[in-house]
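Researcher: I'd like a structural prediction for the single chain below. Treat it as a standalone chain; there are no partners to consider.
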Amino acid sequence: NEPFPKVHLHRALSWNGVDYLDLSAAAAHAQKWRHGGVEIPIPAAEDELLIMAAHAFFENKFITLHELFYLTFITPQITDWPGVTAKAAHYFWEPAFSQFIAAAAVLAESVGLSLSLPSSVRAVPNLQVRLPYLLPLPQTFAYSWQKMWQGVKAGHWRGLPRQLFTYSLVDGAWMYRKAWRKQRGVQAC
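Model: Treating it as a single chain, here is the predicted structure.
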């Protein structure tokens, strides 16, 4: 009787063709979950947190109440916070990950939830609490371009055209507009 669904399938740990984590590494650390006589590999809590952060920050552009509840479930299971941060840094999005965690901590506290986070997590100042929390466009734009630039500096040229397309057109014109409309729809309720 677990309170949260366990299965969310992707072919890769990427969005719009841009990689955020190594699928083979996540699969190597996967836990086995049995349901209906079927054994299903699910990511370890550390990888699941990174997947959730990348999903919220780079695809959805917002943090939901469901994600906050789920964070209260998985953060106590995480034992290697430096390793989690290092994985995000390896794919050049550690600043975005840190921003996600800091914002999630403030949002969780605002609705009476508590996340098990390391003391190094700093709160986001002047965070306007409204769920789903729409991540500010200038912030997501800056972190996306920073990720791309760090990759180029490290010699990762192969994904550059896809990232240029994703971060300029898909993110700015389509995904962010979709997230803004969703938030507006929730506020109208």
